[in-house]
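User: Hey, my collaborator sent me this sequence without any context and asked if I could get a structure. I don't really work with proteins. Can you help?
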Amino acid sequence: MPTSLDTGTLNFSWSQALIGGLVAAGVERAVISPGSRSTPLALAMLRQPGLDCEVIIDERSAAFFALGAARASRRPAIVLATSGTAVANWLPAVVEANLAGVPLILISADRPPELQGIGANQTMAQPGLFGEQVRACHAMGTPKQGFDSKALSTLAARAVEQASWPHPGPVHINQPFREPLIPATATPPTPAATSVRTSRPCSQPDPAAIAELAKAMAGRPGLIVCGELPPEHGFAEAVASLAEHLACPILAEPLSNLRFGRHDRSHLIVHYNQWLSQQAAAVGKPAWILRFGAFPVTRSLQGLLGEHHDVMALVDPWPRWSDPAHRLSHLLHASPLAVCQALLAAAPSAAPCGWLASWLAADQGHEASQSSAYARLIPHLMAALPAGCPVFVGNSLAVRMLDSHSGSSDKPLEFFANRGASGIDGNISSALGIAAERGRVVALLGDLTCQHDIGGLAAARGRNAVILAVNNGGGGIFEMLPQAALPEFERGWLTPQNIDFHHAARAFGLSYAQSAVGPALTDLVQAAIASGGPHLIEVTLEK
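Assistant: No problem. I've predicted the 3D structure and written it out in structure-token form, which is a compact way to encode the shape of the chain:
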């Protein structure tokens, strides 16, 4: 490093060292929102070999796009913005990343210390802006002459580790710069960065805890409940083997990614939303429940857990507490795969004869139920999807209808949703981030959810993305809640909109089609997937 550089070159060289360190630590994607103060970092990213850069103007959309990409890859993605309110637009995605365990590296450019607190334009206190929503916040100093590039690459490796383990989530780096922001002469070549080699322990369960749990389960009727959980190779096969050994059912939500695939699905219960609340007594009361992953989405499963007063065990690899029903008796912070294997090795005796059969019979009796438009929509969509297709599902009604009506198949499919904070903001952008990572996506979203992130369509150009906007005349989820009885219901909760999705699609360069539920919709989705590129299909549901 030369002993003296002009300020613009110093800013760029400093940024090169930081970004190079992030890439050396395993980061492969950056999402940049244009700005002035962030110029040195943006230039370093755009010139960094091995870093795939997306440029998205809207900072909120950019953060949700990065969230989707990081969710799909399980690797940290960088988000870059300039100073001021640009950074504040990240907050909804930061909250989601925190609660959902998605790794993000948030880099905000900032004004130097001498411009803080004196009314300088586009300047506010940025370190600590996200409070407890981030795993760590690094308030950097302005670039200094003669800086140690190894120290910056080490900090980058530390930020990647903090975002990745033991509980994945967002990390904030706030970087101030003095002007000028652009080098006065030709920029130096990007130096090769090194990184700290990190290793992480395997999260094996405590043998004593496994022995205690196996004893409590032995010979008693029980259930395995699987919600959204981080992907782990071999878990689907292991939990299926455990259910077979225990002769117990698996109540698997779509976001568990157990419903679709070539693993053994013979113990799955997938239609519980249609009968569990009314027929729980008929199938019998479990003596134990073994949970994997997040708390369930739908009220039928939430009610089942809330009414349980015996053994309730949760397996979670992350250091968090997920027990809204206040019913846990055992909490195992360990790899779900390792817990399944340990319980199989402990070999507790199976449930009484007839326990599993009663659950399977109740579930099979509801396979053909198609009492609503959504109940007909979901099977048509599942039939249209090719094997291996990533599917993003919106919150509110869409994810609940998917839970009720998606069924199960040996066709591999992978489901994603923003269920950390369960917001309807940023859903289009998150789906497109998944498309960037996986090469394509099909998104099932409600009409209000689409409108909430309509600007996210700007990132759809050139991507293989099929977005289904289900137009059911507003916030259909509220029709299932007590608010539906209020005289102000339509104005204050249902809020039907008059957005023209055809015009929105044209404005952002997407192909558009409209269809009611039926075979024509299946054909439309299949044709859109086959042709590639971005498509918006408006699905009209009759009331």
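In plain terms: The first helix runs from residue 7 to 24. You can pass these tokens on to your collaborator as they are.
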